[in-house]
Design a protein that fits this description.
Helix 2 crosses helix 3. The protein is globular, with a radius of gyration of 23 Å. It is about 30% helix and about 25% strand. The strands form 6 sheets. It has a 7-stranded mixed beta sheet with strand order 2-6-5-3-4-9-8, sandwiched between helices. Strands 20-21-24-25-26-19-27 form a 7-stranded antiparallel beta sheet. The protein has about 550 residues and is of the alpha/beta class. The chain binds alpha-D-glucose-1-phosphate-6-vanadate and cobalt (II) ion. Alpha-D-glucose-1-phosphate-6-vanadate binds next to loops.
Length: about 550
């Protein structure tokens, strides 16, 4: 066993985006590319000597190789112990749970989330801090700064560790524990939700569910918890074996990419409840029989029904949503008399609010919901939350959501994505739009008057840090909004996201197709941003 210090040259493109560093697999396979970034992470951690680190990933191509490298680098960098998921598997929320439970100094999660995998697909590295949450911007900025000047990294020359079974090993003086990937997480879920009641629902014979794990990381978790501990019949979980290329699919739980599940829930003899999760298990899509729940509505419904669930029976301290997420939850918070925070896109912005107990539930329009039980969004958690609410209320998903709209009004919502657009042109579109901001307020566009137009900036109420340029917002006097943002997770060209929202209090108008209800705003968006001209596209790549 031999400790090596390897000379290297910095790469200029290791700036973490919305959720870690994401690049194609061939990029990560360039000599020293992964090592440089890992060493930059390690260099940003104070007092790592003897500390515990958690490592795991979503099982995509290159996961196992990367883990072996990280283990050897951790040993060479003085960590005392690494906990690594069996088979290299840890979902993002499970990693967060394991970090917290073991007072680890942090964790490295290998995932490019919903981006496709395989030898030509994407790979990613996320660093979470000791609270179990994604590193905040000041940490990712420090990692990036380090990556631009790094000239060496440390690694132990040693044989690979066997990740196929639970067990304990030594790498130099460092302990490596290969842990069961599911256990801690399953226990945490059991402590939050009424498992006996959900079990009754499954064994009653009157309730059927279909869970699509999309050949990604939640398969083992869903098999063990849903079919194992909750007694759902075998076959409830589909696509439950993690594959290195996710079966060639896009592990993104939305109406477009989770089409297998959508066909089942919208087909004849559909089950009562359907759900899907993404590559690394932090996203969820919720479906009822012939019914789609928008993620923004899901957050609002969970907030309104939280006290029905044991883990939240004493109420919520507050809620938080990302800026582009619809304002449906704001109305629930108002009625409950709790605070509602609006943060930039990305789970890292919820960490301080959760740590300071200012928010209990958080959500993003991008199929992400979670709570203070960990510091990540959590796909299966949302599924169990819905199951618990369904078991207690005895209503269907559709009934629950429609009743919710009746009480609070409906926030029609949609996101239009233009993927792989030319980067320059996308930036030009944003600049063109921004240049109109001084004159937009007070203008009438169609039947709507612009109330404000700004570039969203967030001041963290806990540590006072400021994050600027977080999306262009155009708000109208009736509460409707159009938001424009460029994605921070794509790896090819630019992805333009346009978020559309309008509010309808009148329950006789709650049955429109969102595209129809939002048509005037889709038109306004085109008019002010000249989307077709700038993107050279006639329509969005994905509509959710
Ligand atoms: C997207 C979503 C954002 C989410 C992020 C990471 O970011 O919009 O809400 O937090 O992905 O999710 P962007 O910058 O592409 O819009 V995941 O499931 O990739 O960890
Ligand atoms: Co994800």
């Amino acid at each position: 066993m031999n400790l090596k210090t390897v000379s290297t040259q910095p790469f200029s493109d290791q700036k973490p985006g919305t959720s870690g560093l994401r690049k194609s697999v061939p990029d990560f396979q360039k000599p020293h590319y992964l090592e440089n970034f890992i060493q930059s992470i390690f260099d940003s951690i104070d007092s790592k000597d003897g500390s515990t680190l958690v490592v795991g990933g979503d099982g995509r191509y290159y996961n196992r190789q990367a883990i072996q490298t990280i283990l050897k680098m951790a040993a060479a960098n003085g960590f005392g112990r690494v906990l690594v998921g069996c088979d290299g598997i840890l979902s993002t929320p499970a990693a967060s749970c394991v970090i917290r439970e073991n007072q680890a100094i942090g964790g490295i999660i290998l995932s490019a989330s919903h981006n496709p995998g395989g030898p030509e697909g994407d790979f990613g590295v996320k660093f979470n801090t000791s609270n179990g949450g994604p590193a905040p911007e000041k940490v990712t900025d420090a990692i990036y700064a380090r990556s631009k000047e790094i000239n060496e990294y440390k690694i132990l020359e040693a044989a690979d560790i066997n990740l196929d079974r639970v067990g304990s090993f030594k790498l130099g003086t460092m302990d490596v524990e290969v842990i069961n990937s599911v256990d801690s997480y399953a226990k945490l879920m059991e402590s939050l939700f009424d498992f006996p009641r959900i079990r009754e629902l499954f064994t009653s014979g009157n309730f059927r569910m279909c869970m699509d794990s999309m050949h990604a990381v939640t398969g083992p978790y869903a098999h063990e918890i849903l079919e194992g501990r909750l007694g759902a019949p075998e076959g409830t979980v589909m696509n439950g074996k993690p594959l290195e290329d996710f079966g060639g699919g896009h592990p993104d739980p939305n109406l477009v990419y989770a089409h297998d599940l959508v066909e089942i829930l919208f087909g004849s003899d559909a089950p009562d409840f359907g759900a899907a999760s993404d590559g690394d298990g932090d996203r969820n899509m919720i479906l009822g029989r012939n019914f789609f729940v928008t993620p923004s509505d899901s957050l609002a419904v969970l907030t309104a029904n939280a006290t029905l669930v044991p883990g939240y029976k004493n109420g919520l301290s507050g809620v938080a949503r990302s800026m582009p997420t619809s304002q449906a939850v704001d109305r629930v918070a108002q009625r409950l008399g709790i605070d509602c925070y609006e943060t930039p896109t990305g789970w890292k912005f919820f960490g301080n609010l959760l740590d300071a107990d200012k928010a209990t539930l958080c959500g993003e329009e991008s199929f992400g919901t979670g709570s203070n039980h960990v510091r990540e969004k959590d796909g299966l958690w949302a599924v169990f939350f819905w199951l618990n609410v369904l078991a207690v209320r005895g209503d269907s998903v559709e009934e629950i959501v429609k009743e919710h709209w009746k009480t609070y009004g409906r926030n029609y919502y949609s996101r239009h994505d233009y993927e792989e657009v030319d980067k320059e042109r996308a930036m030009d579109l944003m600049a063109h739009l921004r240049s109109q901001f001084p004159t937009l307020p007070g203008q009438k566009l169609g039947n709507y008057e612009v109330e404000y137009a700004d570039d969203f900036s967030y001041s963290d109420p806990v540590d006072g840090s400021i994050s600027e340029n977080q999306g262009l917002r155009i708000g109208f006097t009736d509460g409707s909004r159009i938001v424009f943002r460029l994605s921070g997770t794509g790896t090819k060209g630019a992805t333009l996201r346009i978020y559309l929202e309008s509010y309808e209090p009148d329950s006789s108008k709650h049955d429109l197709d969102p595209q129809e209800a939002l048509a005037p705003f889709i038109e306004i968006a085109e008019k002010i941003a000249q989307i077709r001209q700038f993107t050279e596209r006639n329509e969005p790549t994905v509509i959710t």
